[in-house]
C-alpha cells in the first residue's frame, strides 16, 4: 500500500511538470501572436534572471512536494528577480507557515510575500472563476500597447488578483492595476510590482 501512494505522488509530481511545460509553450505562443499585432513585450529581466527565477520556483515546489502533496497542489509560486510570491489555499495554518519557511530557505530568494489563505478552496465553480479572471487580465495586458505584458505575473485566488513583476513607469503600473480592477468579479487587487529603477534590483 505504501508503494502505491508513493507512485501516486510521483504521478502527480510529473503531471505538474508536464502541465508547466505545456503552459510555458502556450504562453509563448500567445505572446508571439501578440507581437504580430504590435503588442510591446520587452522583458525587463535578463535571461540569467529568468533562469534563476525558474530554478527558485522548481526548488520550492520540490520542497513543498516533500512536505505534502496537498500543499504542493494548492500553493502557487511566482518569482521575479528572487522576489517570491506565494498564493493559494491550505487547510491549516501550519502549512502556511511552513511554506513561508521553505521559500525563505531556498537559494537565491531575496524577499517572500506570503499571501496563502488558510481555508479550503473546494468550490470548483469559484476556482474556475479565478482562472477566468487571470486569463482575462493577461489578454487585456497583451492588447494594451502601453504595457509590456511579459513583465507581469498574474495569480487570482478567491477573486483577489495578485500582480507581480517589473513596471517601466508609474503610469504603466497604474494602467495594469486599473485593467485588473475593471474585470467583472474582481474584489481586490494586490500589487507586488516594483519599478524598473527600484534600488532593490541592483
SSE arrangement:
Layout: H1 2-35, H2 47-67, H3 69-74, E1 75-80, E2 83-90, H4 93-104, E3 111-118, H5 124-143, E4 152-157, E5 160-167, H6 170-181, E6 188-195
Parallel strand pairs: 2-3, 5-6
Antiparallel strand pairs: 1-2, 4-5
Quick summary of this structure?
With 202 residues, the chain is an alpha/beta fold.
Structure description:
- The protein is α/β, with parallel strands linked by helices.
- It has one domain (about 1-200).
- It is built from six helices and six strands; from the N terminus they run αααββαβαββαβ.
- It has helices spanning about 1-35, 45-65, 70-75, 95-105, 125-145, 170-180, and strands spanning about 75-80, 85-90, 110-120, 150-155, 160-165, 190-195.
- The protein has a three-stranded mixed beta sheet with strand order 1-2-3. It has a three-stranded mixed beta sheet with strand order 4-5-6.
- A hairpin with a 2-residue loop joins strand 1 and strand 2.
- The radius of gyration is 17 Å and the shape is globular.
- Mean pLDDT is about 80; it is low at about 1-5 and about 15-40.
Rg result: 17 Å
Q: DSSP helix count? A: 6
Summed over residues and divided by their number, the pLDDT gives a mean of: 82
Listing every helix as H and every strand as E from the N terminus to the C terminus, the arrangement reads: HHHEEHEHEEHE
Terminal-residue CA separation: 52 Å
Q: Report the strand count.
A: 6
Structural class: alpha/beta
Report the biggest beta sheet as strand number plus sense, adding barrel if it closes. 3 strands, mixed
User: Which sequence of strands runs across the widest sheet?
Assistant: 1-2-3
Q: What multimeric state do the chains show?
A: single chain
Ranges where pLDDT stays below 50 over 5 or more residues in a row are: 1-5, 17-41
Amino acid at each position: 500500500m505504501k508503494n502505491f501512494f508513493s507512485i501516486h505522488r510521483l504521478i502527480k509530481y510529473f503531471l505538474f511538470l508536464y502541465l508547466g511545460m505545456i503552459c510555458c509553450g502556450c504562453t509563448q505562443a500567445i505572446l508571439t501572436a501578440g507581437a504580430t499585432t504590435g503588442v510591446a513585450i520587452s522583458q525587463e529581466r535578463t535571461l540569467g534572471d529568468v533562469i534563476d527565477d525558474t530554478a527558485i520556483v522548481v526548488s520550492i515546489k520540490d520542497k513543498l512536494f516533500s512536505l505534502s502533496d496537498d500543499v504542493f497542489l494548492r500553493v502557487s509560486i511566482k518569482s521575479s528577480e528572487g522576489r517570491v510570491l506565494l498564493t493559494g489555499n491550505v487547510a491549516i495554518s501550519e502549512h502556511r507557515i511552513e511554506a513561508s519557511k521553505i521559500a525563505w530557505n531556498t537559494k537565491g530568494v531575496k524577499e517572500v510575500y506570503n499571501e496563502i489563505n488558510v481555508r479550503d478552496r473546494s468550490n470548483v465553480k469559484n476556482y474556475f472563476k479565478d482562472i477566468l479572471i487571470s486569463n482575462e487580465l493577461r489578454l487585456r495586458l497583451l492588447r494594451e500597447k502601453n504595457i509590456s505584458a511579459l513583465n507581469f505575473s498574474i495569480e487570482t485566488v478567491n477573486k483577489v488578483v495578485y500582480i507581480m513583476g517589473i513596471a517601466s513607469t508609474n503610469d504603466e503600473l497604474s494602467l495594469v492595476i486599473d485593467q485588473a480592477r475593471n474585470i467583472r468579479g474582481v474584489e481586490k487587487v494586490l500589487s507586488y510590482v516594483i519599478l524598473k529603477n527600484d534600488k532593490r534590483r541592483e
